[in-house]
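Anyone able to model this chain together with adenosine-5'-triphosphate?
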Amino acid sequence: MGKRIGLFGGTFDPVHIGHLRGALEVAEQFGFDELRLIPSARPPHRDTPQVSAAQRLEMVQLAVAGVAPLVVDDRELKRERPSWTIETLESLRTELDADDQLFLLVGWDAFCGLPSWHRWSELLDHCHILVLQRPDADSEAPEDLRDLLAARSAVDPQSLQGPSGQIAFVWQTPLAISATQIRQLLGEGRSVRFLVPDAVLAYIHAHDLYRAPN
Ligand SMILES: Nc1ncnc2c1ncn2[C@@H]1O[C@H](COP(=O)(O)OP(=O)(O)OP(=O)(O)O)[C@@H](O)[C@H]1O
Ligand SMILES: O=C(O)c1ccc[n+]([C@@H]2O[C@H](COP(=O)([O-])O)[C@@H](O)[C@H]2O)c1
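re: yes, here you go
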């Protein structure tokens, strides 16, 4: 039987417990052999992050060290172009067996933007998509996703068959935490303890990240 591999891409500016708790819960529900967190080097649809890709990567590495099955995949940092997910999937597929199942985790807000992703109609050729709820997000799917949802949604997330091709909505503890909130708190000189792992907190302070310019 093929492996079950989860993928969770993000800007992770910085990684926080909304990402980490969701990732771990989904990994347990789906029995993933591994769940790869993939920091974007150059996120396609947003301004350049405040913190370098290398530092965002280091924070993700600190956050998941020793927390199986979460691991870090740094392939997007090695590409000299926007971090398009379709290219990440294509590159992963060249390393895997044909029957390995890939599950791309995306938060609801990211999922709603799917039709604007590079070559988006090809994504499901390579993976299943698992959508994580975000308590702070709107609940209506955009018009241009309705046909896809009607054709590809699985009623029971545990019933996803084959290496790719379906969409499922998954439950995880709702945590209304965002990296934006964390950057804002730090910019105001306030604490982000318990919103990020202690090792990430220590890294942020050691490198003086996200402080408002004097
Ligand atoms: N609290 C959360 N619960 C569930 N999914 C989340 C949560 N925070 C982020 N995500 C998802 O994680 C992925 C990466 O998110 P990202 O790194 O942009 O974090 P963010 O908190 O949304 O950042 P920002 O506030 O800077 O936009 C996206 O698919 C996003 O929807
Ligand atoms: O491939 C694309 O065109 C694309 C467009 C927007 C976002 N993504 C990916 O979606 C993930 C979440 O993005 P973000 O901006 O919310 O951190 C991250 O892995 C991005 O690389 C991908």
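Residues 135 and 176 are 6 Å apart (CA to CA).
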